[in-house]
Design a protein that fits this description.
The complex is a heterodimer.
Chain A lengths: L4 H27 L26 E4 L7 E8 L2 E3 L2 E5 L3 E8 L4 E5 L5 E4 L5 E6 L4 E6 L12 E7 L7
Parallel strand pairs in A: 2-5, 4-10
Antiparallel strand pairs in A: 1-2, 2-3, 5-8, 6-7, 6-9, 9-10
Chain B lengths: L1 H38 L2
Classes of the chains: A alpha+beta, B mainly alpha.
Chain lengths: 164, 41
């Protein structure tokens, strides 16, 4: 089989690019932890309010763990508890969330945090919030008539800034 | 015969540059999106 010279160049270019993309994907998935929720943590969605940590939603400072804060979020049609989250910039945070009724989303606009909340499962994400700002948390899984009104706010604040 | 082969090479040059162009556009957009992803928390 004869392959034209230009076709060889193109095959090398295309194959090389594909290889780079796959390496980046592999490193992101296996080293960076970019993957769907592992669905190993299950919960009785009818008793979410009684089960820890969801019996006490909000921001909790923790000691002796790999992260500084735990943010516990409960989603239900059509709101999140809590409505507002405030975290100091630079903190390592573990977001833990679940839903009390139907499937909801937990997308934090302008960040890479994007979780799907399924009844009976707990979703989590660990990240370091390294940029000050006010980020809107939106439901990005259609959950009913009030879907568009379902939001919460993440405030990443600088503890040394007293201007506000 | 040789002359015919050469003219075939010339005809493919435009195709090569066009496909490289498409490839470069894909790579530039991909790198831009990946940079957005890396820059966010």
């Amino acid at each position: 089989m004869e392959i034209h010279k230009y076709e060889k160049w193109w095959l090398v270019f295309g194959g090389g690019t594909l290889l780079v993309f796959l390496i980046v994907l592999g490193v992101s998935a296996f080293h960076g932890g970019t993957h769907p929720n592992n669905s190993k943590w299950t919960i009785n969605y009818e008793k979410v309010d009684e089960i820890a940590p969801f019996d006490n939603p909000g921001v909790h400072k923790v000691e002796g763990k790999d992260w500084d804060y735990e943010v516990v979020l409960v989603a239900q049609a059509f709101a999140y508890t809590p409505m507002e989250i405030e975290i100091p910039v630079g903190s390592k945070v573990r977001f833990i969330a679940t839903t009390k009724d139907v499937i909801h989303g937990l997308g934090i606009a302008g960040t890479n945090i994007n979780l799907m909340l399924e009844p009976g499962y707990v979703s989590e994400k660990i990240t370091t919030v390294d940029e000050v700002g006010e980020y809107t948390i939106v439901c990005n899984e259609y959950c009913g008539t009030g879907h568009a009104l379902m939001y919460s706010t993440l405030k990443v604040v600088d503890p040394n800034d007293n201007s506000n | 015969m040789t002359k015919q082969k050469k003219s075939s090479d010339d005809n493919l040059k435009g195709t090569l540059f066009a496909t490289f162009g498409v490839g470069l556009v894909i790579i530039i957009v991909w790198v831009y999106c990946f940079d957005l992803f890396i820059g966010r928390f």
